[in-house]
Design goal:
This protein has 144 residues and is mostly helical. The protein has five helices and two strands, in the order H-H-H-E-E-H-H. A two-stranded antiparallel sheet has the order 1-2. A hairpin with a 5-residue loop joins strand 1 and strand 2.
Length: 144
């Protein structure tokens, strides 16, 4: 079994040869060092301009908006992950009523503002400080 080098002998000769210093392929390339280049790239604002109505938005739209905000840096990873989680089949509101969420699909409008407000109140009443912190960041993001 023979082992061959990945470098060819021509590339070694090219490095050490003064005759190859000016290649015909690169002789017509010029660099303008006198002017500074200005970039035309601009980041968008922290939050996308068109904020949806969180009292009537589908889970898919909420995730899309959250993804845009996460990509722009307006939303932290933990909050984005919590928003991206699917809704449970059933939930309890702050008054103790059981909410049936089985009919909420990616195309169904849902009141996320009230849902997350209720979940925040429940987490605070149970003393779940980590859950309350995450839910508070969601409620702040939604803007209740």
């Amino acid at each position: 079994m023979e082992i061959f080098s990945m470098r060819s002998s021509q590339s070694l000769l090219f490095k050490n040869s003064d005759n190859n210093a000016k290649s015909s392929k690169t002789s017509d390339i010029e660099f303008d060092t006198g002017t500074s280049a200005q970039t035309g790239f601009k980041l968008e604002d922290d939050k996308p301009a068109d904020s949806p109505d969180f009292t009537s938005v589908s889970p898919g739209e909420l995730r899309s908006y959250a993804r845009q905000s996460y990509d722009s840096g307006a939303l932290d990873q933990q909050t984005y992950a919590a928003i991206s989680e699917p809704l449970p089949m059933h939930a309890i509101d702050a008054q103790g009523n059981i909410l049936d969420l089985t009919g909420v699909t990616d195309g169904t409008a849902f009141n996320f503002r009230d849902y997350y407000d209720n979940q925040l109140q429940i987490a605070k009443s149970l003393g779940d400080s980590n859950g309350a912190k995450t839910l508070q960041s969601i409620v702040d993001f939604i803007g209740s």
